[in-house]
Automatic annotation (TrEMBL):
It comes from the Archaea. The chain crosses the membrane at residues 20-41. It comes from Caldisphaera lagunensis (strain DSM 15908 / JCM 11604 / ANMR 0165 / IC-154). InterPro entries: Ig-like_fold, PKD_dom, PKD_dom_sf, SBP_5, SBP_5_dom. Residues 188-244 form the PKD domain. One of its GO terms (biological process) is peptide transport. Pfam families: PKD, SBP_bac_5. Keywords: Membrane, Transmembrane, Transmembrane helix. One of its GO terms (molecular function) is peptide transmembrane transporter activity. This is PKD domain protein,extracellular solute-binding protein, family 5. Signal peptide: none annotated. PANTHER family: ABC TRANSPORTER, PERIPLASMIC OLIGO-PEPTIDE BINDING PROTEIN, PUTATIVE-RELATED (PTHR30290:SF34), PERIPLASMIC BINDING COMPONENT OF ABC TRANSPORTER (PTHR30290).
Amino acid sequence: MAMPIEVGYSWNRKSISRSLIVLLIILVVVVIGILFSFYYYRSISSKSTSSTSTQTQSTLNSLKPASPASLTVIADNPISVFLPGYTSSKGSYALIYVGNGSVLNSTSNYVNVLYKYPGMYMLYYEVYQNGLIYGSSSSNLITLVVTPNIPLNLSQYLTVPTITFNITRNPTAPIFSTGQTVYLSGGFLQPPSGQNMTIYEYVWNFGNGQTMTVMANQTTLLPEENPVNVTYSSPGLYAVSLTVITKNVSSGKTYNYTTYQTIAVSNNSLMFKIFSSNLNIPNPGTIIVAENVPGGPYSFDADIDLEVVGEEIIRNIYSTLVIYNGSSTSKFLPMAAEYIPTVGNWSQRYVYGGIAPNYSMYTFKIRPNLRAANGDNLTAYDVWYSIIRSLLCSGGVPPTPGYALAQYLIPNYSEFMPIVTSPNDTNGFNEIMNSVFYNNDTNTVTFNLTERVNPQLFFSILTESEASVYDAKWLEQVGDGINFTPAGFYAYEQTCNGGNYNTQVQWNPMSTAPYMIKSYTPGESIVLSPNPYWPTNIPDIPKPNDTVIIYWVKDPNTAYEMLASGQADILTNIPSSYTPSILNLESEGLATIYVYPTFSENFFAYTLNVNTSMLKSINPQYNIPSYYFANPLVRKAFAYAFNYTEYLNSIVGNEKYHIDFGNAYCGILIQGLDYYIPPTELTGCPTFNLTYAKQLMEESGFYNITVYFPIFVSSGDTVDFTAASMWAQALHNIDPNINAVPLYMPFVTMYAYDSIYGQNPMPIFYMGWSPGTPTALEFAQGMIEEGGPYAAPDGFNSTYLSQLSNYFASQNNTYLANLFANESNEYSLLNNLTLQAMKAEVAGNTSEAMQLYKEVDQLTINLYMYVYTIQPTNMWVIKPYIHGYNNQISWEENPLTNAATDSVYWWWEK
């Protein structure tokens, strides 16, 4: 998640008023300059990085800063740099110190610069006339952010190194003085993802002829010696590089990739200062984000991705018909649509859009002059084509977002299942074709719903990824076009399953929104640039001016250091344990903190049919029966062994840090929902009670089973890793046979594990649910419903539980046979109640829905499907010069769209 640099100390010119002294100085300088100029000019080489002129900085003209065509550039792509203080004339030339160890000689005021590797580079230039130095921009250093550029086929073998400063020891970094000790910390964004790949060693080149090789620790993969230090005896720019050597431990083959960081070293003869505008904003025009999300996203295909990391990019690169109006969950802005449809406009629906009086048809007038990032016109046809695609992908595996639309457009739709069931399924084909229509003459799209759906609910669904607008022409050009026949629909559905994706759409889709993908380094970083064709006349959805660089870093410390050292503008997903450090930054005017509520909930989830073969491939020592957590009394015992108060007050830190990071909850429905049921109206909400937990384990029939298994936690989530450690100790105390250990795993890997039905190797894992609509039904679908994105891969299936009952009956274990039979019946009842409650909610039968959801929540608690930890509040940690759109942070504080600290970047201003 390159990086802006903190401004170093300024220097002051000192004038001498006595004319005699001035004259003497001028004479000395001229003589020395004449003698030295020929030697100086001839000695410049590509490895020289510092001015060697003996003329003091105070006698030179301070030139305007160089002006690159962009302050961000992708590695191995040339960039043009304008030199405003140089005018070409006879006998003149300019030397450009580009920060990578090279010095360019130019007789033009434009020069092309090529940076092969990513990093943070500084650049300045000097102007010469007849061999004499005339002026320098060293007091106006320009910083360029160069982002990685790794081919997809090599990404699994490489890792992008990181270089950060110790700002306590080096508060003026990257500006230093001669003789000063420079402390440099090496690291990496993400480890290599390829099989048998590891980080082998780190190679430093300090730009002054000194190098240093440091072996990688094979546990942490970080350098064995960290930080390292170096001093510079001469002034100038030094190109510090760090190369990470990765190695295939099986074949022995090695790979390498390098990152640069320019260091400016000053003395009395050559002073450096980073250019800043009057607003003192580093890297204007570039927003840099450090996200503590190791592993990055699953996909950028809006019809495939159902996780929050990829969703952030999806929100910024795809238009939807409508979007939420800032922080409101009930008001909407038209985006691809020109107007918000209303019932009153039904008679003029082809002009303004409209809603049928029975709320079963919605017509949207598509905004004119919309264009994709390649210039293609976007019409009603593209919107229609995109909705068809979403419906075809609604039954994809892993689960996909299209089910949210399909449930209202397809008669008797089975959620999370494909609509067209065979190449000859004309019924499924016709159901899709009859669900949505387009009219290019009126530029309208009409949805034909199977039931009455209130506008707030339907608009909420249309803000989400399942309603993203694609460029149909582009899809067909990249081999992802739809054949509009039953056989064609059936074939297309298969492309929505893992392993069959169109990789162009998955990782480099065509934008239809204000931002577009400029470059992507798999799992490590992404650069978003403004869509050049986005209109300038859409109210409150402005055409952005900023480029966005997002780094998905390996751990919270790297993310924090990037913000603290000035290498990032926004910090997200930082554990609460960093609060004191962040508060200290805020007290020094180096950060601003905002806290806001969300509609998210976090929990530990169980897997009822663990894929033990896959689990052993992670660690052969792990040992647990696949059905261990199918036992409801085991789940209940585990729930009562978790210390909820300790978790909230000390580990999360509500009391410790005096900040509200979230609140406890019980059941799947949380505060803020219309059908929220307070815990005081429910029974069985677990509390920390080890005596009762031990009793439950003894009653479960599994007390005497020795198990050794991991509790999976997303890499970088130090808070819940600590919680898992606390929980594991308590579990061992209630039953010495239980040996649980917390295990870090990249979020994207956990998401993949928890997306394959019957193949989940994670016995217990920490995740959450972030809905797309402020409705109880989204929580019910996501967390309870049989076949849903949690229940299905986690093994909550009444048939499976019945099979377990039959198995234990065959073993003459009547107790366990009855236990699993009762559980199967209870889960079947829960699933039926859930479907009834959702139906009542959609129909607007408020009292019926409330009663049904109360029964649903109670039965969910009785089954102990989850260990409920926190309904979190989120925290924005930003630099003081970062502001919300129109100076209102509320644009970035929607409890739904920003629930996972996902930014809508056209609503950030730098």
